[in-house]
Amino acid sequence: MIELVIDQRRKDLGGFEVGRVLPFAGHRTVGPFIFFDHMGPATMAAGLPRSVDVRPHPHIGLSTVTYLFDGEIMHRDSLASEQAIRPGEVNWMIAGRGITHSERFEKARAQGDTLHGIQAWVALPEALEETDPAFFHHGEMDLPTYEGGGMWARLVAGKAFGVEAKVKTHSPMFYVHWRLDAGAKAELPAEYPERAAYVAQGSVEVDGRTFQTGQMLVFAPGQPVLFTAIEPSIVMLLGGEPIGPRFIEWNFVSSSKERIEQAKADWRAGRMKLPDLDHDEFIPLPGDPPPAANPMS
Questions:
Q1: pTM tops 0.90, yes or no
Q2: N or C: which end of the chain has fewer CB within 10 A?
Q3: Mind giving me the DSSP string for 104-160?
Q4: Could you give the CA distance from residue 192 to residue 269 in angstroms, rounded to a whole number?
Q5: Cβ(99)–Cβ(79) under 8 Å?
């Protein structure tokens, strides 16, 4: 039933840590999910320096999916989108042929905050990798919920458990937030060929084994999976249809290595850097020299 267990790897982003789960050397994707970071939980004091913000950077060939349990992040992008995300909401950004965005902790800077959530990337199907970039924000009314037997669930994106979220997706997939009371039982059906569960908080028992915060369980296809919460727990379910091989380098995802090289050249040449989001420095490619200080930042 359990094909693989992936432990998060802690990574310092220059002010707070994330637990990186995907991509993993032995299992790079789960359905279309090609990147999965667990942010926090992190306490951020008022007066947080701007250096902690995620500065403007580019993407191609994917959708970014931001979902929070606690805290607030301000999203800005080169389509002129400006949208705060709060717990229970979804920011879904389609990079397609190219987009630039930043993520800022403005609430934390003003008054302090606690950040806890998941940032995921969903690879676009090969035929749609060069689609037009777009940004969508969805509130709680767009995301179906269910409650019963000590389990509360929200469908964040895709189709699962007989319902569909009002989030534009490009391939068959599911993304679910479970909140389980101690002793609660819940089942993941065998609906999709690729499925995984990430323990974001607490601990659960699956197939006679106990799993803790920071572990992703990747399941073999064909059988439902029963979970029992050992303590109050948060579990994220994810997966879908396989998307085929993808190259991933820095912030770029593509079925073509040549396309990634082109995107790198475009970024270095400044062809993806308009508008100058908040007059900030842009993140250089790994190995590039840092940009000169911007007097307006």
A1: yes
A2: C
A3: E-HHHHHH-EEEEEEEEEEEPPGGGTTPPPEEEEE-GGGS-EEEETTEEEEEEEEEE
A4: 42
A5: yes
167 is written with which tokens? 């989030």
CA distance 200 to 39: 10
Question: Could you give phi then psi for residue 177, rounded to 5 degrees?
Answer: -105, 115
Per-residue pLDDT of the chain (297 residues; tens, 9 = 90+): 899 999 999 887 666 789 999 999 878 899 999 999 999 899 999 998 888 888 899 999 999 999 999 999 999 999 999 999 999 999 999 999 999 999 999 999 999 999 999 999 999 999 999 999 999 999 999 999 999 999 999 999 999 999 999 999 999 999 999 999 999 999 999 999 999 999 999 999 999 999 999 999 999 999 999 999 999 999 999 999 999 999 999 999 999 999 999 999 999 998 887 655 555 678 888 888 765 543 333
CB of 10 closer than 8 Å to CB of 17? yes
Residue 12 CB burial class (10 angstroms; 0-12, 13-18, ≥19): exposed
DSSP lists the bridge partners of residue 20 as 9, 37
End-to-end CA distance of the chain: give it in Å, rounded: 52
Residues 165 and 143: beta-carbon distance below 8 Å = yes
User: How far is it, in rounded angstroms, from Cα 70 to Cα 73?
Assistant: 10
Peptide bond into 289 cis (omega under 30): no
Give me the CATH topology for the region 2-240: Jelly Rolls (2.60.120)
187: left (phi over 0), alpha (psi -120 to 50) or beta: beta
Q: Which amino acid is at 80?
A: A
